[in-house]
Design a protein that fits this description.
The structure is a single chain. By secondary structure, this protein is α+β, with helices and mostly antiparallel strands. The chain has two domains: 110 residues, Tumour Suppressor Smad4; 120 residues, no CATH class. It has three helices and 18 strands. β9 and β10 form a beta hairpin. The longest helix has 35 residues. The radius of gyration is 24 Å and the shape is elongated.
Amino acid sequence: MIRYHFIRMLGGTALLSMATVAAHAAVDATYKTEIDAWRAKVEKSLRSDNGWLTLAGRHELSSGANTIGSGGDNQIVLAPGLAPERLGTIAIGGDKVTLKLAPGVEMFNARSDPIGFSDRTLQTDLDRRDWVYLGRLSFHVIKRDEGKYILRVSDLESDVRKNFAGRIWYDVNPALRVDAKFVPYSGKKIDIVNVLGEISQEPVAGYLEFKLNGKTHRLDALADPGEPLFVIFSDRTGETTTYPSGRFLEVAMPKNGKTVIDFNKAYNPPCAFSAYTTCPLPPPQNVLKTSVAAGEKFRGH
């Protein structure tokens, strides 16, 4: 009522003010629609086949032959019903990963592929990891920088996937979409520690400087060529409502040293959903001493 009275008191200016209010409301509605669509997209990705909710195992492979199957005598033992007693052998050698299936077993290059195979080389590159399939089972092999090979197993009928209640979010808050200044580094690398305590040296593009809750803050940002800036951060909401180990953000590449950080798009790392992932933790300089009540919350494991 006070605001309405104030507009009436402005006389002719009231029309302009009401038009401005309506314009802002329209912008806010458009913005909320954009954020809701983005959140629906990441929800769909999380629930997808081979998404984080389907993960059912993570196994470090040894050099040489690694037998795999549901039988207890395998080096890699899968859950009963997920695979035959002896599925086959995954061999690591000469920077090459080869899958050779047991007699009478066929796998497929896709769930819809009618033509099976009995052996093949598996690609492990970041941009070209080969998933292979058998019924509800699928898996691929990841090569880590330190030369380790990891088998990641997926179960289409995972209980985690079946029982997942959905991501939960703070209400959209346009005030937590903030302007940022980007200051590039030159050839700098920083230590990134994951949840297993493993350390990798990662190139850092620069830092983002912005104001939030009345104070100036900085976040170091990683970047791959052609990709948005990538930020791993945590804040004080991790003590109560968000994932304690931190959250992720993608930020548009700066133009003329400027960009925008939208904390409404802060999202949880895979470790918030699956025990079979190894997520990076925020570097010390990205632990904010303030609360960022925006983006994704945490349901708990």
